[in-house]
Design brief:
With about 220 residues, the protein is of the alpha/beta class. Helices cover about 50% and strands about 15% of the residues. A hairpin with a 4-residue loop joins strand 3 and strand 4. The structure holds cytidine-5'-monophosphate.
Length: about 220
Protein backbone atom coordinates (compact mmCIF):
# COMPACT_ATOMS: atom_id res chain seq x y z
CA UNK A 1 0.00 0.00 0.00
CA UNK A 2 1.23 3.51 -0.76
CA UNK A 3 2.33 5.60 2.22
CA UNK A 4 -0.40 7.66 3.87
CA UNK A 5 -0.91 11.34 4.56
CA UNK A 6 -2.05 11.72 8.17
CA UNK A 7 -3.53 15.06 9.26
CA UNK A 8 -3.89 15.91 12.95
CA UNK A 9 -5.75 19.07 13.95
CA UNK A 10 -7.10 20.43 17.19
CA UNK A 11 -7.02 23.09 19.87
CA UNK A 12 -3.88 24.61 21.36
CA UNK A 13 -1.82 22.40 23.66
CA UNK A 14 -3.92 19.28 23.49
CA UNK A 15 -1.09 16.93 22.66
CA UNK A 16 -1.25 16.98 18.85
CA UNK A 17 2.49 17.07 18.39
CA UNK A 18 3.07 14.28 20.89
CA UNK A 19 0.64 12.01 19.07
CA UNK A 20 1.96 13.10 15.66
CA UNK A 21 5.54 12.26 16.67
CA UNK A 22 4.46 8.93 18.13
CA UNK A 23 2.59 7.96 14.95
CA UNK A 24 5.41 9.13 12.67
CA UNK A 25 7.91 7.10 14.63
CA UNK A 26 5.70 3.96 14.74
CA UNK A 27 5.05 4.14 10.97
CA UNK A 28 8.51 5.47 10.05
CA UNK A 29 6.93 8.52 8.45
CA UNK A 30 8.10 12.10 8.41
CA UNK A 31 6.67 14.43 11.07
CA UNK A 32 5.95 18.07 10.23
CA UNK A 33 4.89 20.53 12.93
CA UNK A 34 3.01 23.16 10.91
CA UNK A 35 2.58 25.35 14.01
CA UNK A 36 6.37 25.65 14.18
CA UNK A 37 6.26 27.35 10.77
CA UNK A 38 3.81 30.02 12.00
CA UNK A 39 5.89 30.38 15.15
CA UNK A 40 9.13 30.81 13.17
CA UNK A 41 7.56 33.50 10.97
CA UNK A 42 6.28 35.27 14.11
CA UNK A 43 9.70 34.98 15.72
CA UNK A 44 11.35 36.64 12.70
CA UNK A 45 8.75 39.44 12.62
CA UNK A 46 9.22 40.14 16.34
CA UNK A 47 13.00 39.98 16.03
CA UNK A 48 12.87 42.58 13.27
CA UNK A 49 10.42 44.65 15.33
CA UNK A 50 7.86 44.67 12.52
CA UNK A 51 4.47 46.15 13.34
CA UNK A 52 2.09 43.17 13.02
CA UNK A 53 -0.49 45.38 11.34
CA UNK A 54 1.95 46.49 8.62
CA UNK A 55 1.10 44.08 5.80
CA UNK A 56 3.57 45.58 3.33
CA UNK A 57 6.45 45.09 5.76
CA UNK A 58 5.30 41.54 6.54
CA UNK A 59 5.23 40.70 2.82
CA UNK A 60 8.84 41.92 2.50
CA UNK A 61 9.96 39.78 5.44
CA UNK A 62 8.25 36.70 3.96
CA UNK A 63 10.43 37.08 0.85
CA UNK A 64 13.50 36.62 3.07
CA UNK A 65 12.26 33.66 5.08
CA UNK A 66 13.45 30.16 4.34
CA UNK A 67 12.11 27.36 6.55
CA UNK A 68 13.39 23.81 6.78
CA UNK A 69 12.85 20.78 8.99
CA UNK A 70 16.00 18.83 9.81
CA UNK A 71 16.72 15.80 11.93
CA UNK A 72 18.47 16.77 15.15
CA UNK A 73 20.60 13.85 16.36
CA UNK A 74 20.91 15.22 19.92
CA UNK A 75 17.16 15.12 20.55
CA UNK A 76 16.35 12.45 17.96
CA UNK A 77 13.64 14.78 16.61
CA UNK A 78 12.87 16.78 13.52
CA UNK A 79 13.40 20.47 14.34
CA UNK A 80 12.74 23.73 12.50
CA UNK A 81 15.44 25.89 10.93
CA UNK A 82 14.91 29.50 9.93
CA UNK A 83 17.38 30.94 7.42
CA UNK A 84 20.07 28.44 8.42
CA UNK A 85 19.51 28.75 12.19
CA UNK A 86 17.98 26.12 14.47
CA UNK A 87 15.13 28.04 16.14
CA UNK A 88 13.25 25.09 17.65
CA UNK A 89 13.69 26.40 21.22
CA UNK A 90 13.44 30.13 20.46
CA UNK A 91 10.00 29.83 18.81
CA UNK A 92 8.50 28.32 21.99
CA UNK A 93 8.94 31.56 23.95
CA UNK A 94 6.01 33.25 25.64
CA UNK A 95 6.38 36.34 23.40
CA UNK A 96 5.93 34.19 20.28
CA UNK A 97 2.98 32.31 21.85
CA UNK A 98 1.25 35.60 22.53
CA UNK A 99 1.62 36.93 18.97
CA UNK A 100 1.47 33.81 16.79
CA UNK A 101 -2.31 33.53 16.33
CA UNK A 102 -2.50 37.13 15.11
CA UNK A 103 0.25 36.41 12.57
CA UNK A 104 -1.32 33.09 11.53
CA UNK A 105 -4.56 34.90 10.67
CA UNK A 106 -2.84 36.95 7.93
CA UNK A 107 -3.82 35.51 4.52
CA UNK A 108 -0.34 36.09 2.96
CA UNK A 109 1.32 34.28 5.85
CA UNK A 110 -1.01 31.31 5.43
CA UNK A 111 -0.48 31.18 1.67
CA UNK A 112 3.28 31.14 2.24
CA UNK A 113 3.10 28.35 4.84
CA UNK A 114 0.45 26.21 3.11
CA UNK A 115 2.38 26.15 -0.20
CA UNK A 116 5.41 24.73 1.63
CA UNK A 117 3.29 22.27 3.63
CA UNK A 118 1.75 20.88 0.43
CA UNK A 119 5.21 20.49 -1.12
CA UNK A 120 6.34 18.56 1.95
CA UNK A 121 3.41 16.19 1.50
CA UNK A 122 4.18 15.35 -2.12
CA UNK A 123 6.23 12.32 -1.17
CA UNK A 124 3.49 11.13 1.23
CA UNK A 125 4.47 9.06 4.28
CA UNK A 126 3.89 12.13 6.42
CA UNK A 127 2.17 13.07 9.68
CA UNK A 128 1.41 16.79 9.89
CA UNK A 129 -0.26 18.52 12.80
CA UNK A 130 -1.87 21.96 12.99
CA UNK A 131 -5.25 23.67 12.74
CA UNK A 132 -6.23 23.39 9.06
CA UNK A 133 -4.36 20.31 7.86
CA UNK A 134 -7.38 18.07 7.29
CA UNK A 135 -9.61 20.90 6.07
CA UNK A 136 -7.36 23.05 3.84
CA UNK A 137 -3.80 21.78 3.44
CA UNK A 138 -4.67 18.13 2.72
CA UNK A 139 -8.45 17.89 2.34
CA UNK A 140 -7.90 14.44 0.79
CA UNK A 141 -5.66 13.17 3.60
CA UNK A 142 -6.03 9.40 4.11
CA UNK A 143 -6.36 9.79 7.88
CA UNK A 144 -7.76 12.82 9.71
CA UNK A 145 -7.64 13.03 13.47
CA UNK A 146 -9.15 15.87 15.49
CA UNK A 147 -7.81 16.19 19.01
CA UNK A 148 -9.34 17.89 21.96
CA UNK A 149 -8.97 17.95 25.75
CA UNK A 150 -10.44 19.80 28.71
CA UNK A 151 -9.01 23.34 28.82
CA UNK A 152 -8.02 23.03 32.51
CA UNK A 153 -6.02 19.91 31.73
CA UNK A 154 -4.43 21.52 28.65
CA UNK A 155 -3.42 24.58 30.68
CA UNK A 156 -1.92 22.45 33.43
CA UNK A 157 0.18 20.46 30.92
CA UNK A 158 1.39 23.59 29.10
CA UNK A 159 2.16 25.41 32.38
CA UNK A 160 4.33 22.51 33.52
CA UNK A 161 6.21 22.59 30.20
CA UNK A 162 6.76 26.35 30.48
CA UNK A 163 7.98 26.32 34.09
CA UNK A 164 11.71 25.81 33.43
CA UNK A 165 11.80 28.71 30.93
CA UNK A 166 9.14 31.02 32.37
CA UNK A 167 8.65 30.37 36.12
CA UNK A 168 7.00 33.81 36.41
CA UNK A 169 3.99 32.81 34.29
CA UNK A 170 0.95 31.65 36.25
CA UNK A 171 -1.41 28.80 35.42
CA UNK A 172 -4.21 31.36 34.96
CA UNK A 173 -2.16 33.27 32.36
CA UNK A 174 -1.47 30.06 30.47
CA UNK A 175 -5.16 29.17 30.43
CA UNK A 176 -6.00 32.68 29.21
CA UNK A 177 -3.43 32.39 26.39
CA UNK A 178 -4.83 28.99 25.29
CA UNK A 179 -8.40 30.28 25.24
CA UNK A 180 -7.38 33.40 23.35
CA UNK A 181 -5.47 31.38 20.74
CA UNK A 182 -8.44 29.01 20.37
CA UNK A 183 -10.73 32.01 19.94
CA UNK A 184 -8.53 33.61 17.27
CA UNK A 185 -7.92 30.27 15.52
CA UNK A 186 -11.61 29.31 15.35
CA UNK A 187 -12.91 32.76 14.44
CA UNK A 188 -10.45 33.96 11.79
CA UNK A 189 -11.73 34.50 8.27
CA UNK A 190 -9.11 32.37 6.49
CA UNK A 191 -8.84 28.65 7.26
CA UNK A 192 -10.36 28.74 10.73
CA UNK A 193 -9.81 25.77 13.02
CA UNK A 194 -12.64 23.29 12.33
CA UNK A 195 -13.09 19.59 12.70
CA UNK A 196 -13.19 18.09 9.19
CA UNK A 197 -16.48 16.24 8.65
CA UNK A 198 -14.56 12.97 8.16
CA UNK A 199 -12.15 13.38 11.09
CA UNK A 200 -11.85 10.85 13.90
CA UNK A 201 -12.07 12.61 17.28
CA UNK A 202 -9.75 11.80 20.17
CA UNK A 203 -10.35 13.52 23.53
CA UNK A 204 -7.20 12.82 25.49
CA UNK A 205 -8.20 14.58 28.73
CA UNK A 206 -7.93 11.30 30.60
CA UNK A 207 -5.69 9.24 28.33
CA UNK A 208 -2.03 8.38 28.79
CA UNK A 209 0.32 8.85 25.83
CA UNK A 210 0.39 5.07 25.36
CA UNK A 211 -3.41 4.87 25.31
CA UNK A 212 -3.80 7.71 22.80
CA UNK A 213 -1.22 6.11 20.50
CA UNK A 214 -3.05 2.78 20.70
CA UNK A 215 -6.39 4.39 19.81
CA UNK A 216 -4.86 6.29 16.87
CA UNK A 217 -2.92 3.25 15.59
CA UNK A 218 -6.04 1.06 15.71
CA UNK A 219 -7.81 3.68 13.58
CA UNK A 220 -4.89 4.07 11.14
CA UNK A 221 -4.63 0.32 10.72
CA UNK A 222 -8.28 0.08 9.70
CA UNK A 223 -7.52 2.49 6.86
CA UNK A 224 -4.18 0.99 5.78
O1 LIG B 1 0.68 24.16 17.15
P1 LIG B 1 1.11 25.44 17.83
O2 LIG B 1 0.28 25.74 19.05
O3 LIG B 1 2.57 25.52 18.09
O4 LIG B 1 0.77 26.56 16.75
C1 LIG B 1 0.99 27.91 17.04
C2 LIG B 1 -0.10 28.75 16.40
O5 LIG B 1 0.02 28.69 14.98
C3 LIG B 1 -1.54 28.34 16.71
O6 LIG B 1 -2.04 28.93 17.89
C4 LIG B 1 -2.28 28.85 15.48
O7 LIG B 1 -2.62 30.21 15.65
C5 LIG B 1 -1.26 28.77 14.37
N1 LIG B 1 -1.43 27.62 13.47
C6 LIG B 1 -2.31 27.75 12.42
N2 LIG B 1 -2.43 26.75 11.50
C7 LIG B 1 -1.72 25.63 11.63
C8 LIG B 1 -0.83 25.46 12.71
C9 LIG B 1 -0.72 26.47 13.63
O8 LIG B 1 -2.98 28.77 12.31
N3 LIG B 1 -1.84 24.68 10.69
Amino acid sequence: MRPLIIAIDGYSSCGKSTLARQLASALQYKYIDSGAMYRAITYELLRRKINLNDLAAIREVLKDIHLDFKYDPSSGRSVIWLNGENVEQAIRSWEVSEAVSQVAAIPEVREFAVAQQRRMGQQRGIVMDGRDIGTVVFPDADVKIFMTADVKIRAQRRWKELQPLHPEISLAEVEKNLLERDRLDTQRAVSPLRKAADAFVIDNSHLTETQQLQIAMDYVQKIM
